[in-house]
């Protein structure tokens, strides 16, 4: 087992970007870079755990020095999860009916279920109420995908009638209707596996090897003490240690339990998908838990199928069923294969479905009910901290062993004296009982040093700060799906952002229109257009859309739904006089080509009556224009487009320069005999896209988000380059980039600073890597172009964050170091491929995530500095005292209290510091940034030397310094001296906790009131210290101190503040100290390999 990790102490930054003092390193010289490369022999040297292999994850766990494995590895990835999931999936597929029956029996026995949705119940349905179909028949038909059963019921139309649902309008939008359906067919929830109880956390905290040894030692000491000294005095030594251990276990368990509840709440939020359903003819957004049998659900590319159901209609609808079948094959859905399974994803096309099964009546529900959510995932920082903890632990174990040997040697050689000056061991005189008792006490001290020295809580501090950060980030509109992304965001050097909805408001309106061969005076006034032209535009908009127009029965304002672009165009056409419902009833779509981000357009073939077929296209203006051979003028006459093409191009450019999104609407007729007759051939038919007639070009305004310019400026000043990657026209992208501050001036807007996706993709791989560095704006990009850009930037050493909302963005989101999906406009596929969901789609929220990422790293460094200072001081004082006098001034109970201050309370206080603006005034944290930077080394050495010096003076000259030599009771004088050492040591830690807050700033108090938890923990620690010293007496091996000694203790602690200020004036070398630690290891390894 490798335990010579260089990580943390000996690991350094490869990027050399980070020159800020809080993170604490300065730029390294180029000559040192060879020292900073990845070390394949170091199990803890993991750059990125996002796509790390199981072997590398298993390797670092085996290499770590761990005292409590169940606690240390609680939040790491379950390496057998995939295998377990696959076994459960196969079992459910094979025995779904039996498993469902067993689950229903269990639920019926319990009478209630801890359902996973808010205030929802998974109680099985008892009767089908007023519906004409039996629940078991529905479940059996869908599970067995029995098409003949479906046909016997009258097809999807017959099932809908029996379920009292309308295939176009859906069910009624009525609470009673929904409740009745839940009672009859169940709710779309499943029994959630109960999380660990508080008692389980208590049990896990108890598993610490050193604490178990201390309890055994305490029991032994208790038995011997009572036997030799009687119950009144004899229980104190053993009882005090036992109580201190139990206190440590209790505080640890409470802290861990609170963390688990935070993660559980975040997991609940992640699962609560919002989706659209048709109810009462209106498109409404509901939670996935509120879907009921009979609901009509529109399906679009990227959606998750929320329940079992039957296809109503679809065009090119393809479903990825791998989550349920285990096969990665995409399945096309049509009337021959109409069944849809819950939990699957829409890979392509559009359609609508009728829900026939929900919750535990689906295979997905049974699977979710039988597996527990794995919240575990190691983060790069967590792995590195395990390496650091292992290194420190080895040092601590060595020190403890040295102390143990020194104390035993001194004891058995007769040089150890008790507090009265009497020799403790005299050969042939001291009884066996006394020898065992004294040896147990010596052994207890050594084990307690291990407890203090091995920083078991150090890796868990990452989990604590991440849990805190994730909860706070929710308020900043960011939902973290992967823990590692939270900290990796602090290292981000570039953000590749979408334009629409992220940099802009996604509130679109048509503000300019070109139709009839000229620009319209008012964009939505039809008075200058021929009725024939208006009719064709209306038909094209009404049929070639995934949106909807709803007219309320009470005569209120119309409700328009769909994507922001669809809503803008539908609203514009409605004002032109479009009769949406009438048009859709008078003509039928026979084939559709859904909008495609590669082709930048979508089309439909519409059958009018029985003889006439029109093909309508809508998409990127310049692309659709290139397919047009004629246009319709204001008189309704078709004209050749050649003479006007340049006019339309200039019109598109002019609108694009005004930051308008340009969309063209065109159509053509198709001879009926050229349209495939068979459905199978029709599904494979490519819609003709040549010889189109241009009907209109619209310019859609999407204003920049307020505050986005400031957010871009903050990123730039923080060393994070913002790049815009958009599917829009390059001129539109340039105009928005100038407005947002991504481009500073027109002079910058030259290739390759701004580039088209097509140009970039045609470059060689080497050329792409060179050009990628210079790109600021990429227009007319496809999702694959975004992926190529991310790959090129990462090869250049950038840490890349990328935003995405579409299904085709999934590869880029997965490839990037941090994938950011959009909570409002993002598809479920995009969200599942991402690491963080930006809930309000706002770029300013992305910048807040960067702040939180940097805060995580900075907080961990604060905690490391604080903990190592305590470690060094406690170990040095005990080792020196043990070697010289055969006794230690800091007793077992006192060290356990110090451990509690240092580990649990210290982590709570320092790991929950809120982010400050100061964090954004520095460059990104390098991937291999040393955890202990030169600034931290300086700070902790200054404080450690001071504390060690003061404690050693008190230990060896305390009786003189404190004026205790005249005390007639020598034993009492020694107790006062030792209590003073303990008190001064704790005071130093309390005051030094303030210093740890600001490793590089003179004013350590700035912002302290913004963290009430820090103030509360410091206050509670101080009060408890007073109680321990004043009241616990023999129990804590203390005696009450006079007010003068209390003032002296506080004064000793107080000195650490001005000392920290003086220390910060000491310059530090540019080369990280870690390089000097690492060189001997490198040379040793090289000599072994030679």
TrEMBL record:
UniProt xrefs under InterPro entries: ATPase_P-typ_cation-transptr_C (IPR006068), ATPase_P-typ_cation-transptr_N (IPR004014), ATPase_P-typ_cyto_dom_N (IPR023299), ATPase_P-typ_P_site (IPR018303), ATPase_P-typ_TM_dom_sf (IPR023298), ATPase_P-typ_transduc_dom_A_sf (IPR008250), ATPase_P-type_domA (IPR059000), Ca_ATPase_N_dom (IPR024750)
Database matches in SMART domains: Cation_ATPase_N
Name recorded for this polypeptide: Calcium-transporting ATPase
Location of the protein in the cell: Membrane
Top EC class for this record: translocase
The keyword RNA-binding is annotated on this UniProt entry: no
Keywords associated with the record: ATP-binding, Calcium, Calcium transport, Calmodulin-binding, Ion transport, Magnesium, Membrane, Metal-binding, Nucleotide-binding, Translocase, Transmembrane, Transmembrane helix, Transport
Organism per entry: Eruca vesicaria subsp. sativa
CDD domains: P-type_ATPase_Ca_PMCA-like (cd02081)
Catalytic activity line of the entry: Ca(2+)(in) + ATP + H2O = Ca(2+)(out) + ADP + phosphate + H(+)
Cited NCBIfam families: ATPase-IIB_Ca, ATPase_P-type
EC identifiers of the protein: 7.2.2.10
